[in-house]
Design a protein that fits this description.
Layout: H1 2-11, H2 13-16, E1 25-30, E2 35-40, E3 45-51, E4 70-75, E5 81-86, E6 91-96, E7 101-107, E8 112-117, E9 124-128, E10 133-138, E11 143-149, E12 158-159, E13 165-169, E14 175-180, E15 185-191, E16 200-202, E17 206-211, E18 216-221, E19 228-233, E20 238-246, E21 249-256, E22 261-266, E23 274-280, E24 285-290, E25 296-301, E26 306-311, E27 316-322, E28 327-333, E29 355-361, E30 371-378, E31 383-390, E32 397-403, E33 409-415, E34 422-428, E35 444-449, E36 456-460
Antiparallel strand pairs: 1-2, 1-28, 2-3, 4-5, 5-6, 6-7, 8-9, 9-10, 10-11, 12-13, 13-14, 14-15, 16-17, 17-18, 18-19, 20-21, 21-22, 22-23, 24-25, 25-26, 26-27, 29-30, 29-36, 30-31, 31-34, 32-33, 32-35, 35-36
């Protein structure tokens, strides 16, 4: 499948190359393989990966020194430095975009999540989601210089283009904080429609932040008093949002993981946005970012181990590019490199290419709206499994069962959130679920109610 994607990307290159300049780069943070994938948007080809850590189980050693759970991304205003956030090792890695070499690392508080540079480039602000503050880092000295207290669980930070305000939604508290960047103080606390916000987009007029738990996207003014203007119902597992501007106007693109969709809204500051398109994507769209001219967006497929390039003038997918395992954040960085040196120090995907992608659907005759995608990624001796399910009963407990000729095995138990969605992970020797090149007895996955009735909700699609 990965080779087919690469071939398709080459086939459409004559179309896809129009929106990118040589030296532009697209980066994804690959959570399971602990890599950063590097894509050339001029050809829509994977150039290779920057390997920041080892695979599990090596990454679980008490002597382990690499990064773990590579998750967040940002970049400097001059586009020469990429910041990479690893939530498992509480670290910020600074990478030279010209050489793909690590310039340094800064370790901060528990469960760092996302980070971005101030518009003047003097500081890098990082949300420490496992605690209650934004860590302010001097990128030259490569050390934390102050902390700004926020609501518990800050999810992401982005700045208004003029740099006057920073906006910090929370992933644990129904509150979005507005920080006066000159005083390093929270000056407004805006109620969120629900507690779990992982991502936002900001311009001089508006702030959009996603609410993953309830499938909403909330819009507030970027001017005092920062009032909420509207809240959109965008769908289960609403992940990331980005703004683009092209010859047709100003738009917001929102990834909806539970429906495998990217929603397109025409932005009308002062008026409610209007949805103008729905783009069907691959499995579990997550990170999204646009090219500088607004003619392309790139969408990371968390359970598809790929990135889709979208022509925003026609709102259609023009290429799919294989990347590392479970891509999370994604950024488009123009003029990241000025020569072929920008391809240096990259490695191949290696073990990360050995992925299995499965679909689970309700049993025949059922009218349940439930659905799930499963990604099984090789970690060498063992594998990681991630299931993303929607259409479940809110708050109810479920089990993922491995069923075959022998005794059934419960792989994991999880609870649906208030929106009826769930994302859960487990580890184990799971490559045996791949029946393409084996005559072994067939094994299948099922999602069942964890109650005594143990009703089968979802079964693996052949």
């Amino acid at each position: 499948m990965k080779r087919l994607w690469a071939g398709f990307a080459l086939f459409v290159c004559s179309v896809a190359c129009l929106a990118a300049q040589g030296g532009d780069r697209v980066y994804t943070a690959d959570q399971a393989s602990n890599t950063v994938s590097v894509i050339d948007p001029a050809t829509n080809k994977l150039l290779g990966v920057i390997r920041l850590g080892d695979d599990v189980p090596a990454a679980l050693s008490p002597l382990y020194r690499g990064e773990l759970l590579v998750h967040g991304l940002g970049f400097s205003p001059d586009h020469k430095t990429l910041d990479v956030i690893s939530i498992g090792s509480n670290s910020v890695t600074l990478i030279d975009t010209q050489t793909n070499k690590i310039k340094g690392k800064v370790y901060v508080g528990r469960s760092t999540h996302e980070g971005f540079f101030r518009p003047d480039g003097r500081e890098l602000w990082v949300t420490v989601r496992g605690e209650n503050y934004v860590s302010v880092i001097d990128p030259l000295q490569m050390k934390e210089v102050r902390r700004i207290e926020t609501a518990n669980g800050p999810g992401m930070v982005l700045f208004r283009p003029d740099g006057r305000y920073a906006f910090v939604p929370s992933s644990f508290t129904p509150e979005c904080d507005v920080i006066d960047t000159a005083r390093y103080q929270v000056i407004a606390r805006i109620p969120q429609a629900s507690p779990f916000s992982p991502n936002l987009a900001v311009d001089q007029d508006e702030v959009w932040f996603t609410l993953k738990d309830t499938g909403q996207t909330q819009i507030i003014s970027a001017e005092p008093p920062f009032a909420t203007t509207t809240t959109l119902m965008t769908g289960p597992i609403t992940n990331h949002v980005t703004f683009v501007r092209n010859k047709y106007g100003s738009f917001a693109y929102v990834t909806v993981g539970g429906k495998n969709e990217v929603l397109v809204y025409r932005r009308r500051p002062g008026l409610d946005p209007v949805q103008v398109a729905t783009i069907q994507s691959g499995d579990l769209p997550h990170g999204v970012w646009g090219s500088d001219n607004g003619e392309r967006i790139y969408v990371g497929l968390e359970n598809g181990d790929g990135v889709e390039a979208v022509d925003t003038l026609q709102n259609r997918i023009i290429a799919t590019i294989p990347v590392g395992q479970l891509p999370q954040a994604l950024v488009y960085v123009s003029s990241a490199t000025i020569s072929d040196v920008g391809n240096a120090n990259l490695q191949s995907l290696g073990e990360a290419e050995r992925a299995i992608h499965l679909e689970l659907a309700p049993p025949r005759g059922s009218i349940s709206p439930a659905h799930a995608s499963v990604a099984i990624n090789s970690l060498g001796l063992i594998d990681s499994l991630q299931i993303a399910a929607t259409g479940l009963e809110p708050g109810k407990a479920y089990q993922l069962i491995l069923r075959g000729d022998g005794p059934e095995q419960a792989l994991l138990q999880f609870n649906a959130n208030s929106g009826g969605s769930a994302i859960a992970q487990t580890l184990g020797p799971l490559k045996r679920l791949d029946h393409r090149n084996t005559k072994a007895p067939r094994l299948v996955l099922e999602v069942r109610s964890a109650t005594e009735a143990r009703e089968t909700i979802l079964s693996q699609v052949p």
